[in-house]
């Protein structure tokens, strides 16, 4: 029995959890896939056979599947749970180049790759693009001998990216669309930010959004759901987590620190007083008429 659960779906990639409960020593044939797939095992293990040979896969060894490959699988020791990352052609070319050459398809999952995998799963419900690009880039370095050229001029590239983010351009919503707008690979843009500013692009962009959230909270923004939508967060919970991560306080606590809660309370009291006065005034007018 094989089940797929989509953890994150973007125009450039899809991250799925694959749960296989088969227990068989024979080889099951798979239809050739049309996409590039990076598969990492989370528990259990299985065997994969392609023209280049047979590989035993577990948490220490994953694989890169290429379009058109004829694959066969067996599960002599039971089932497994894997993460399968499907890459669209444009993203794959940006990471591996137009005509990559391969040393093989198997990947050794060292500590860095394991950590990148865990970070991707933790970030899957948010943007997750930067974690995914970092993970795939590590895999590409293992099996592709002709990675896409990085080029120079990191400072100028970061300056251009910061300008796009400051202008709140739609492409600033994520690493991959921003890299596309700037005409560079997502991996190069991500690495340039870390080199030049010492922080990831995601953290920098979130820092800008948190600053804008502070501006709105100081101005008395009452609705956190509206604030989250306006600033490009996935939802109110995503806004609250990000604000707390960057500032150590929730938006509600920040209202108290900034004094905006008191202003809201005063406005509410004033509104209530006006309503009460109008109601009582109407009652008095009725009594005089009687």
UniProtKB/TrEMBL annotation:
UniProt keyword annotations, A-Z: DNA-binding, Transcription, Transcription regulation
Occurrences of domain HTH araC/xylS-type (ranges): 159-257
Transmembrane portions of the chain: none
Pfam families according to UniProt: HTH_18
Record's keyword annotation contains DNA-binding: yes
Highest taxon of the lineage: Bacteria
Protein known as: AraC family transcriptional regulator
Highest classification ranks of the organism: Bacteria, Bacillati, Actinomycetota, Actinomycetes, Pseudonocardiales
């Amino acid at each position: 029995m094989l089940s797929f659960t989509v953890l994150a779906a973007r125009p450039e990639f899809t991250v799925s959890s694959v749960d296989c409960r088969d227990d068989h020593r024979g080889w099951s044939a798979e239809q050739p896939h049309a996409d590039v797939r990076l598969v990492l095992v989370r528990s259990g293990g299985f065997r994969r056979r392609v023209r280049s040979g047979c590989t035993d896969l577990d948490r220490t060894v994953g694989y890169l599947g290429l379009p058109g490959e004829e694959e066969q699988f067996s599960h002599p020791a039971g089932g497994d749970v894997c993460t399968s990352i499907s890459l669209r052609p444009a993203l794959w070319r940006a990471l591996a180049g137009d005509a990559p050459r391969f040393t093989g398809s198997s990947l050794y999952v060292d500590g860095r790759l394991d950590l990148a995998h865990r970070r991707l799963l933790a970030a899957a419900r948010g943007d997750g693009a930067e974690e995914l690009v970092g993970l795939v880039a590590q895999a590409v370095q293992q099996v592709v001998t002709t990675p896409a050229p990085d080029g120079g001029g990191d400072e100028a590239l970061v300056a251009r990216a910061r300008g796009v983010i400051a202008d709140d351009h739609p492409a600033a919503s994520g690493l991959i669309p921003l890299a596309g707008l700037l005409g560079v690979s997502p991996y190069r843009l991500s690495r340039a930010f870390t080199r030049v500013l010492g922080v990831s692009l995601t953290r920098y962009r979130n820092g800008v959004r948190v600053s804008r959230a502070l501006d709105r909270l100081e101005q008395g923004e009452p609705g956190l759901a509206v604030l989250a939508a306006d600033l490009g967060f996935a939802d109110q919970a995503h806004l609250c987590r990000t604000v707390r991560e960057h500032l150590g306080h929730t938006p509600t606590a920040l209202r108290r620190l900034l004094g905006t809660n008191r202003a809201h309370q005063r406005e509410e009291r004033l509104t209530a007083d006006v309503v009460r006065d109008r109601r009582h005034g109407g009652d008095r007018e009725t009594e005089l008429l009687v």
